[in-house]
Amino acid sequence: MDILTVSLIASTLVAATPLIWAAMGGLVSHQAGLFNFTLEGLMLFGAFFSVLFGTLTGNVWIGILLSGCVCVLLSLIWGWIVIDLEADQIISALGFILLAQGGTVFMLNAMGQGGGIFSLVQLNPIKIPLVHDIPLIGPVLSNQTALTYLSWLLLPLFLFALYRTPFGLSLRATGERPEAAEAAGINVRRMRYISVAITGFCCAMAGSQLALGLLAMFTDNMTAGRGIIAFAAVIFGLHRPLQVFLVALFFGFAGALTDRLQGFGLPSELLLTLPYVLTVLALCVAGMQSAFKRRVGA
Amino acid sequence: MTVQSQMGNLAAEARARRSLARAWNALQMPVIATVAGLFVTSVLLVCIEVNPLDVYAALLRGALGSLFGISSTLRWATPLILAGLAVSIGFKAGLFNAGLSGQIYAGGFVGSLIGFGVTLPWGLHPVAAILGGGLAGATWAFIPAIMRRYLGASEIVTSLMLWYVAIGIADFLVRQFFRDPTSAAFLMSVKVAPSAVLPSIFPVGNVSVMIFVSIGAAILLAHFMARSVAGYEIRMTGANPAFAHYSGVPIGRRMVLAFCLSGFLAGMIGASESIGINQRFVSQFDPGFGFDGFLVALLANGSIAGCIPAGLFLGILKAGGSEIERTLGLSKSIIWILQGSIILFVSANRLRGYLAWFIGRLRGR
Q1: Which stretches within B48-123 are classed as H helix?
Q2: Average of per-residue pLDDT values in chain B
Q3: What transmembrane ranges does the database entry give (chain B) (predicted)?
């Protein structure tokens, strides 16, 4: 294992962290039967508010938590529009993304900043003592931000919460058979609101990592389609935690590989399309499977 | 007056009242959503101590107050009407073309390719470029359409993903083969041949004959959907697929037709932007016509001809946006916020019920 591979792993982990947070958050809404396309907008809001509150309070964690609270509120507003006002989920999500792009730029301008703001605080990489001493991989695995470690913990947490707790059972029932869930005494409306709130919080973490983990600044439209890739990961991973986690990791790897190959002068544009092509192929395969089942099972 | 003519008058009156009621019914949600959007924007403007009325006045002045303003409104309305039509056609067939931007991008690439790669006489060259761009858009829309037909894959997700694929492929080809050697920072192709350029028909601004093409397309499509067999079958497919299927309508083929038609219109936007405005292929040239197309279609609320006024309305917003920026020092982001909040609320049908309840309570007290 040479130094190139090690640094590729390092940049994969860095690129994958926001994708993992956003995709894992998004799958909760999908499990509850909501087609949540707002991830991109929520990430953008999350990135902006983490920089804003972090700088205002001078503490990076208070900033991130406050940003999480604001995103939960914003996400609940979208939830109200689709759950109670029964708006079209995709159309209103597109409006939400546009609102996020306009809203963050509007607030930047209101503060007298043109293209972006620098953050006075930053998420510092944490060295884990024992892991750090492993040769080659050690420095890569241990020099990550706290949000990266937390994103790894999301996988066991979600697997447990979704498949081993009454809450998870209710959530999945809400998504699969809302009528049956209602009949079984589950408050479908409340479950959906909770799922949307979780999505909002996770996307805020994704945005915070993006803004405070790497650059310590917020720039206009800094998510640049990462929320859409995270949404693709939710679809590609069939909104199951393990699959979605691995797909997000893979998309992060594809992104890191793209940056690397760009350095060698290879066409990066085509490589950047990889997550999207894969998602289309996944939908093809899923469609073929169900078409096959229909024919055989009839 | 004879009894017969009296009855005829009554019938005509009733018909007029009914069509008025239908128009009001169709306009209700767009109007409510626009008011809600204006409310959200006004609140934000008051928060930063700007008078919202000043902003809206500047917006109208910028869009309609001068010849330049009017030409700029028409310039934006041209692609916006087409984009609205493209989305509306999809809606009619019960499909959601979320990847409009991808088809616009494909159309822009092929349109400019024909512009600089082929030699044709003056009148024919732009026509070939626009039609070529339209065909490219239709081809790009064909992929999600057949995936929907044969595999049942959601056309929303696939067409959206193919947007990014279109950007990747077009940018790659331009960088490799057609890049303008003098361009440094921005990725753009060489200029199109002079014979392919769509000239401006106004003394100022950038309005090309495409405005007539847009309006003509709207009228033509409205007629097609209302009066032709294929149009009727498309509407039936969207309204009730099962019923259409058992009535013998080939719903799969009608879906693909509607989606490709939508892609064709989107491709025309890309081509006309490339040969009319930029006169070359510029990477990321599309300032979000895909999003704007949804807004136009949603404001038109299912009416094809309604895309013309809705497109003009959005054109006013776009043209007025730069005036706001210039005179009041506000950024255009306020226009995005307005658009975003209108889209957010426009499909919220329950809002109508809540409003009626609210108004009823106000009256009751």
Answers
A1: 52-64, 67-92, 100-117
A2: 86
A3: 27-48, 104-122, 128-147, 159-178, 198-226, 255-275, 295-317, 329-348
- Whether the pLDDT of residue A298 is over 50: the answer is no
Domain count, chain B: 1
Residue B271, domain member (yes or no): yes
| B321, part of any domain | no
Q: Domain span at residue B253?
A: 76-307
Rounded to the nearest integer, the mean pLDDT of chain A is: 84
Residue B217 CA to residue B304 CA, distance in Å, equals 10
Q: What integer pLDDT is reported at residue A265 of this predicted model? A: 62
Mutate to test the interface with A, among B50, B97, B157 (most CBs of A within 10 A): B157
Rounded to the nearest angstrom, the minimum Cα separation between A226 and chain B is: 12
Query: What is the dihedral angle through the alpha carbons of A224, A225, A230, A236, rounded to the nearest 10 degrees?
Result: -150
Domain span at residue A51 reads 3-297
Predicted structure pTM score: 0.84
Which residue type, as a one-letter code, is found at position B292? Answer: D
Q: Is residue B277 part of a domain?
A: yes
- Read off the CATH number of the domain in which A186 is found: 1.10.3470
Number of domains in chain A: 1
Q: How many CB atoms lie within 10 A of CB A177?
A: 14
Q: Is residue B273 part of a domain?
A: yes
DSSP B196: G
Which residues in chain B are contacts of A85 at CB distance < 8 A? Answer: 345, 348-351, 354
Q: Tell me how far apart the alpha carbons of residues B11 and A295 are, in angstroms, rounded to a whole number.
A: 54
- How near does any CA of chain B get to the CA of A291, in Å? 7
Asked if A87's CB is within 8 angstroms of B348's CB, the reply is yes
Q: Which residues of B touch A276 (CB under 8 A)?
A: 161-165, 168
